[in-house]
UniProtKB/TrEMBL annotation:
<protein>
    <submittedName>
        <fullName>Sucrose utilization SUC1</fullName>
    </submittedName>
</protein>
<dbReference type="InterPro" id="IPR036864">
    <property type="entry name" value="Zn2-C6_fun-type_DNA-bd_sf"/>
</dbReference>
<dbReference type="InterPro" id="IPR001138">
    <property type="entry name" value="Zn2Cys6_DnaBD"/>
</dbReference>
<dbReference type="InterPro" id="IPR050797">
    <property type="entry name" value="Carb_Metab_Trans_Reg"/>
</dbReference>
<keyword id="KW-0238">DNA-binding</keyword>
<dbReference type="GO" id="GO:0008270">
    <property type="term" value="F:zinc ion binding"/>
</dbReference>
<keyword id="KW-0805">Transcription regulation</keyword>
<feature type="domain" description="Zn(2)-C6 fungal-type">
    <location>
        <begin position="4"/>
        <end position="33"/>
    </location>
</feature>
<dbReference type="GO" id="GO:0005634">
    <property type="term" value="C:nucleus"/>
</dbReference>
<dbReference type="GO" id="GO:0003677">
    <property type="term" value="F:DNA binding"/>
</dbReference>
<dbReference type="Pfam" id="PF00172">
    <property type="entry name" value="Zn_clus"/>
</dbReference>
<keyword id="KW-0862">Zinc</keyword>
<keyword id="KW-0539">Nucleus</keyword>
<dbReference type="GO" id="GO:0000981">
    <property type="term" value="F:DNA-binding transcription factor activity, RNA polymerase II-specific"/>
</dbReference>
<keyword id="KW-0804">Transcription</keyword>
<keyword id="KW-0479">Metal-binding</keyword>
<feature type="region of interest" description="Disordered">
    <location>
        <begin position="58"/>
        <end position="96"/>
    </location>
</feature>
């Protein structure tokens, strides 16, 4: 193929290869071939790829050359935390990265340093221990000092990876260590013979990997990992009261927390994805008590009781002769769940959203089999029950920040629970449009649905795109949006993406205040 002349190359047009070429003659331009010909095809690895390769090579070289040093050193700076503000300067990050390579223990055969583990385990303890109170950070770090303890290594890697995914800490700077955590957790886990150990490390490692892949949207793998964690728990017997008969009270409470977290997660995950639940707790288990540690108070126990009430209230086979079942279910949930006061926003958000979600789920399960009424004042059997639940939910959410919703609790993300409430409101509006005019002159079911949809799309959580599509279609059916407004229900607005931390210290969604005050 003839080489293009300089003029045609700059103009990016076809050249016939002659001298002068036809294009240059037509435009009265000089025709020359003086430019050096550049290499065709890829020009080499991207800058980010090259930096990742160099970092891995440097780390591996230090692993081979430096003697083992078990001191943890000073933990690295914490990245963007739950409050959305960075706690370190760029200079501090550079110094900590240097410490990570030079002064912190690098153990043979391990790609992740103790300083990296310390960094993200500290974040877990600060923000997620109230959600999953099953890991003693200091004890796990001591175990990581033993290079032969591969069980602790796999557990720590899974916790750190899940923490980064849960709190959305993964960016360009954190991507390399995030992928390393995932890879090391999976690789080490498959090399271990967990049945030989018979400890809680096995179910916890599988559980935190379930959390990781749930945040990544890999439902099949997250489901299999949750089933694996439950199977380990079944083998150990922590779901049976006989397991706790000879245990010290503190150790018994620790195993009870693991059992209840698996129970909650199993119920939420199976409800969301319409698969059978597999983890059932013995009704004679010892009572789960609040820890003396203020970080684990009454809120976690209340959440467990809430799910237990749901499990007890929802019969295995709902039949039409169960007249008044919906009223009994709703009454039981409201009576057993007294919202405790707690300083932690994540716990408050989890209880508030979960309570509303479970009531709507029970309503959807029972409403086809009971004699429902259109009276909005009859909260037991009214078809407008989801509207009442949604109104109460919005009123409670005005005191919470968006970050409290994004750092969701056990089971599934809050976006999925909020979607279930919003979807039920939309179903009522579609099936019974006359009910949409019942209520305040200013705030009705349509306004409530708009507020919920705006809240859902404002969250920085990894949700199922199919849910957003379904919500968009239902809002179109309710005549709440037109074709030109579809993107408002499918994408987070540019304004929300450009907020400093993606969350506010005030209300979770400022428009909700207007809906609840009018």
């Amino acid at each position: 193929m003839p080489r293009a002349c300089d003029s045609c190359s700059v103009r990016k047009i076809k050249c016939n290869g002659r001298t002068p070429c036809q294009a240059c003659v037509a435009t009265s331009l000089p025709c020359s071939r003086l430019r050096a010909r550049k290499k065709s095809g890829p020009k080499g690895p991207r800058k980010r790829t090259k930096e990742a390769i160099i970092e891995i090579q440097q780390t591996q070289g230090e692993n081979e050359q430096q003697p083992r040093n078990n001191s943890l050193g000073a933990p690295a700076s914490t990245p963007t935390s739950l409050s959305g503000h960075s706690t370190s300067s760029p200079a501090g990050e550079s110094e900590n990265n240097a410490l990570d390579r030079r002064n912190i223990a690098h153990q043979p055969g391990r790609r992740i340093s103790l300083s990296s583990f310390s960094r993200y385990l500290t974040i877990y303890h600060s923000h997620l221990f109230v959600v999953w109170p099953v890991i003693d950070k200091d004890e796990l770090l001591l175990r990581l000092g033993d290079a032969d303890d591969k069980v602790a290594y796999a557990l720590a890697a899974s916790i750190c990876a899940a923490t980064m995914a849960q709190l959305h800490l993964v960016d360009e700077n954190e991507g390399c260590i995030y992928r390393s955590m995932m890879y090391e957790a999976e690789k080490t886990r498959f090399m271990l013979d967990y049945p030989k150990h018979q400890t809680t490390d096995a179910p916890l490692t599988s559980f935190f990997l379930h959390v990781l892949y749930s945040n990544l949207g890999n439902i099949t793998k997250s489901t299999l990992l949750l089933r694996e964690a439950i199977t380990y728990a079944h083998i150990m017997g922590i779901h049976q009261d006989a397991f706790y008969s000879d245990l010290h009270p503190d150790i018994a409470q620790y195993h009870l927390r693991i059992a209840w977290i698996l129970f909650i997660t199993d119920r939420a995950h199976t409800l969301q994805h319409d698969i059978p639940s597999t983890f059932k707790l013995s009704p004679t288990l010892p009572e789960l008590r609040p820890s003396q540690n203020s970080e684990l108070g009454q809120a976690f126990c209340s959440l467990c009781r809430l799910f237990q009430s749901f499990d007890d209230a929802c019969p295995r086979d709902i039949r039409s002769e169960h007249n008044g079942l919906l009223g009994a279910i709703s009454t039981q949930l409201r009576r057993t769940q007294a919202f405790p006061f707690c300083d932690n926003e994540v716990q408050r958000a989890d209880i508030v959203v979960t309570d509303s979600w479970l009531r709507v789920v029970l309503w959807k399960a029972a409403i086809p089999y009971v004699d429902a009424t259109t009276d909005p004042n009859d909260q037991g059997l009214s078809v407008s029950f989801p509207m009442s639940v949604a109104r109460d939910l919005l009123a409670k959410l005005t005191t919470l920040s968006s970050c409290a919703l994004e750092a969701h609790g056990p089971g599934m993300n809050q976006m999925s629970k909020l979607f279930e409430v919003a979807s039920s409101v939309a179903d009522v509006i579609i099936c019974a449009p006359d009910l949409a005019d019942v209520g305040s002159v200013h705030v009705g079911p349509r306004e409530i649905l708009c507020a919920l949809s705006s809240l859902i799309t404002s969250l920085r959580t990894t949700g199922d795109p199919a849910l957003l599509t379904l919500l968009r279609e239902k809002m179109m059916a309710c005549a709440l949006i037109g074709p030109g407004q579809l993107m408002q229900i499918t994408d987070v607005s540019e304004e929300l993406e450009n907020q400093e931390a993606g969350c506010s210290s005030g209300s979770v969604y400022h428009a909700l205040i207007r809906f609840t005050q009018e």
